[in-house]
Amino acid sequence: MSKVIRNGTIVTADRTWKADVLVQHDKIIAIGHDLHADHEIDATGCYVMPGGIDPHTHLEMPFMGTYSSDDFESGTRAALSGGTTMVIDFCLGDPGGSLLDAIKRWDNKSTRACCDYSFHMAITWWGEQVFNEMPEVIERGITSFKHFMAYKGALMVNDDEMYSSFQRCAELGGLPMVHAENGDVVAQMQAKLLAEGNNGPEGHAYSRPPEVEGEATNRAIMIADMAGVPLYVVHTSCEQSHEAIRRARQKGMRVYGEPLIQHLVLDEGEYANPDWDHAARRVMSPPFRNKQHQDSLWAGLSAGSLQVVATDHCAFTTEQKRTGVGDFTKIPNGTGGLEDRMPVLWTYGVGRGRLTMNEFVAVTSTNPAKIFGMYPKKGAIVEGADADIVVWDPEKKKTITAKNQQSAIDYNVFEGIEVKGLPKYVLSRGEIAVDNFEVKAKPGHGEFVAREARGPVSQALSQWKEVVAPRKVERSGIPASGV
Ligand code: DUC
Ligand code: ZN
Ligand code: ZN
Ligand code: ZN
């Protein structure tokens, strides 16, 4: 079955032009004019863009005594409804456990995915077994490794473990990633706040100030430099972290930063809401910041010092959040965002002149495809690419509300926000998953995407050593030349 997307304007990360797109089965096979097919999709007045890629989700993940509530079916349906055609989820093993066993669990969980997906592997401990299993993980197409520098006593790794893992990544061409927050400092701040009677959700934000994130980002960057490996910093939320990334890039390191759509548009004022449920529903790590930090993140996206906008989609119901009544450290950390990332970023970014349309495509699709080793199969409108395509209607409006969402939870952190710009049609490997704004996603359609390992290692200028013979040192005080 072939399809042609007609009369639209194609927008990619590097250009904008008018042409039709011909899709045969699951691939784009031609771009041009006078193309014919069995089925026509009318894109008049719309932009035709590569489907969004969200490289940061936690679907049905065991965390903080419960499981995140969107599974691969509801999570990927939510993704498609908002124009995202691929997610990369974090495969999380138990500390002390086998990485390969964790992959089996994630394989089983993902069978009903509606869109394509891949996994990152979390490194939650270090030992000979992890060292020995990493090559097979990479052979399976899981080429990025996440390290939690926070969640002390649970997922956190120390510098010793992180440096060992980074060196192994350097050897194997893997890309290390970090959740950068100083978990030791967070634990002390949490204990102090609780001892002083600050047990409400606002205590969560007080216990994780920007300095906690800036310190950890700096530390991870320096450790990556010493290991000679690139680094991807997830959920960059503040200027301190962004500053460290900018500096490292200026020195020649391949360091990538990923703001979340939540941090770009929602601020710390949300935690001051007197309604406990309202504030607790927005508890995530790192927490929302103030306007200055938001401005820094927007600037980084347009200047290129930050490369990706993701969601960290980790959805918990109000009931799950309420396990933290009386102790904010027990509120499951996480918010949703999968179905709102693209429309909200378009509205606040393109709509307000902060991002060009091409930059929008870069940060939502093309950059993650390149960074994570799947370009141009994903993230591109070119012949031979997967037909993951969004037909975007820039005039269509809606008010975000939990009542109409695909996500399984009972609220939405973007409730009441009006967006302008929505996906009219979404193709997932050639199948119509959104048809004239109606979600038609098919559970089980999604396939695992094996990704390629990265090429060169990365070192800052500080690590580039001059190759010179060691100088001979004269110690006698008598000049060697005898002058
Ligand atoms: N932060 C969250 O808020 N949830 C999931 C994991 C994380 O790092
Ligand atoms: Zn056909
Ligand atoms: Zn994280
Ligand atoms: Zn996360």
Automatic annotation (TrEMBL):
Residues 47-432 form the Amidohydrolase-related domain. GO terms for molecular function: dihydropyrimidinase activity; metal ion binding. The keyword Protease does not apply. It comes from Nitratireductor mangrovi. It catalyses: 5,6-dihydrouracil + H2O = 3-(carbamoylamino)propanoate + H(+). GO terms for cellular component: cytosol. It is an enzyme of class 3 (hydrolase). Carbamylation allows a single lysine to coordinate two divalent metal cations. Homotetramer. This is D-hydantoinase/dihydropyrimidinase. The keyword Iron does not apply. One of its GO terms (biological process) is pyrimidine-containing compound metabolic process. Keywords: Hydrolase, Metal-binding, Zinc. CDD domains: D-HYD. Its EC number is 3.5.2.2. Belongs to the metallo-dependent hydrolases superfamily. Hydantoinase/dihydropyrimidinase family. Pfam families: Amidohydro_1. The modification N6-carboxylysine is found at residue 146. Catalyzes the hydrolysis of dihydropyrimidines and of the structurally related DL-5-mono-substituted hydantoins, to produce N-carbamoyl-D-amino acids. Its cofactor is Zn(2+).
